[in-house]
Amino acid sequence: MVRLHVPFSGDDAALVRGVREGNPSAKAELFHRYASQLERLITHLLGYDAELADILQETFVSALRSIGSLKDPAALKPWLLTIATLTARKTLRGRSRRRWLRYFTDEAEEARYEPRTDPADEESLGAVREVYAVLARFPVDERLPFALRYINGLELGAVASACNVSLATVKRRLQRAERRFLRAAAGVPALADRIESGERWKTR
Fold this sequence. Notes:
mainly alpha
């Protein structure tokens, strides 16, 4: 007997119901709908990482395992962002400090996963590399909110939600991370020049 695959349609609340009911089409749609967004988020947190596929898979496995705990099915996206952030946090904590720093080795992968820059702008690309080199030395609980806020562009409330902490806590961590970043970047010409010519950090 041939089983035909029936594509899943519906909003996030319907998608959550389908996953909870064990609907294989709903599970496939969960990945299809959110894989690229979570992949980009994880890359913004870690830089290009050779273990990206494994980290993304672990994120979805955790989501499928714990989807029964999602209180508001309509809040699926921020819930997934939290799981991805916590998975990245676990990954960083499980690595030695030496292994945190990942170097870009393939131009095609680099262009796909890095924060958006002009592919022809080698100076910008170099600055991106330097940013991740600086972040590699951050405590994990400062690195993640900094990357969520300033690389991924999330609002403060969304950063707090993704990190699974209060808004007050994430503000304190960001303040420490910003100070740490400015101190470190001052010794990196590619970053110091951009900070000096920009507006964001001038009052800090």
